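LOG
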Amino acid sequence: MNDNGLFATIVEGHPKYDGSFSANKSVFFFDDRIVALGSGIKTADDQHNTETTLFQHAVRADAKATTINGNKLASGDRKQLATSSTLLMDPNSNAYILPEGQSLLIEQQQQESRHQKNSKVTHGEFATAVLSHGKAPENAGYEYAVLVNTTVEKAEQFKNSLSSELQPYQVIRKDNQAHVVEDQASGMTGYALFSAGVVDAGVVASVDTPVLLMTEGNENKLSLTLVDPDLRLYQGRDESQYDEQGVQKEVSIYSRSWRKAPSIPHTLTLELKGQWQPSSLPDDVVIKGYQNGNTLLAITTEQARNIEFELKK
């Protein structure tokens, strides 16, 4: 919507690697601002730390220094700290602003890797920042914002405004059902709705299908962009992906008979707070009626394409 957008995914670990791992992740894009959220992070792996990577940059001779709260990160440094409105600047002038209460590990170390063509051992110095969720987390989460290609002065101003009355963004929900973020400057609200049910955030009352949604408007006019990310190339469960014990096997997407199947149309119901009238509706959006003072919309989607429409009062 207006060159803004969002990405969201439900991560489910494969049984071959770690079938106990799962997480809900979302990334909201508003102009040069990014808000990243995670919730429901869990795994039974108690041998390794579960981490969310913020960045990993090669440190070259002409690169800008990585800084944490204005202090330069030097070669060989390794710092672990609890965030408290922490500001990181990476070598590409991107600012990472982390609210308090998170465990941050930042380091600048030599790393060993393999050449992509011949697998020979390679070395290089990298600046890396990760959020640590500990071993075997049960319901961990995270939140951070990124200012893209910015200055230290703008980043400091943004960080300080997070504790003011005019916060640049507000996280309305961050749980296993929904991630909802309201952006002050653009006036937009993004919704990553991972499951059906009551939403009760912003203008959205409920939805009967997982969707991604962005809204912009006021009490008399509303613009919406919605996408159902499920391509629905098949329905039900593909039993050929499971063994005799019902455990998921590792199979190639290219071996699936349904990978070139047509997308199956699906009609979902979106309930909006208040009584809205059509302003500019495509053929695949219909007002079903009104219930308890709210508006019920029937929206037919396929091929995970965006549907844009406008309502008025």
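LOG (cont.) second protein
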Amino acid sequence: MAAIQESFSDSNKPTYDMSKFVATVCANPGFLMTQHGRGWRIQVTGNARAILIPERTTGEQYLNLIQKIYHAGWSPIPHPWRGEPSLAFEDITPSEACDLLLRIPWYQRKIDDRKVEEWAGAMVRGEWRTTHQGLAFDQNGMLYDGQHRLAAQLLVGITLRFSVARGIQGDTFATVDRGKMRSSAYTFSAEGEKDTFNLSAALRLLWMWENSPVTSWKNRQPVSDDQLRDVLKRHPEIRHSVRRGKPIPKASGRATTLIHYLATQACGSPEIPDQWYAQLSSGYDFQQRDPGLVLRNYFLGGEDKDKTTRVPVRSMQSVVQVLFLFATAWNNTCTGQQRKIVKAFPDYGVPKIRRPGSNHLFRFPFGDLDQN
């Protein structure tokens, strides 16, 4: 959750009074509370190590303490629902979220920090929307659905409106969250975009390129649909790169699309990147030591027979490697340097994309470019 916590300085992180937390935990047999300075010390029967609770905590500290008490064998006290199941929209404060997170039943899945970080980010950016999916409590008042939403709210510290269902039958739990999640590709498809799987992947990579150093990239980087829409609004020409930017099937399409788009920006038009990518696809009119041919052979075979240097095709590391290889081959072609493929990737950095110079090695006709 570091990415979200960095959005707040130590002075403005939301904090929560822990007196009700301590009272709720110690209402269960086997959990004994004593005063400890301005906070509390909770001793668990049969456990030599006590749990220290400060007077106030941040949201992240609160979530960590919840994990500790559950790990120590604590279980929430039932709050039976009287009457028929109900559904209503309610404004939930951060303090109420603290209380509701102490109703997680034993059968709930472990809180996923990545999902909490993703949703907290959406809340911070004002992207959070009230929908029919909110909070649900079973007939014993246990938190049936919504723990990640409440955990994210705790980190951000704002009041939110949720749909809240109460008195849900416990035997329906197995059907919750069984549907297929809507991807960003599905969202863009509903908005009339084409080739949305590759478009959303390229937009996500471009967002990462703009917002964080390559060395800090990770798989499943949380980027919201609203953030991707903003990238598309600022870079509409990337639609063309999505259509033209996959010259070699074995190379990551999102990586090659990004290099095509960055090269288009460097050149001022897609003409040269289009022709070079078409050349990479066909292999036509390369000379033996051309960087483009060396790059093509690296992925498809040809003269390079060293299989130990081939790039795996699915991890984020391989995406960065493909970015490095394509960027290096493009730059070497622009500057007229004929080199063998680089087999050691220096910290997986990616060089800045250049525009063609007077000594370029492009084998198709185009006019001289202004070097200034």
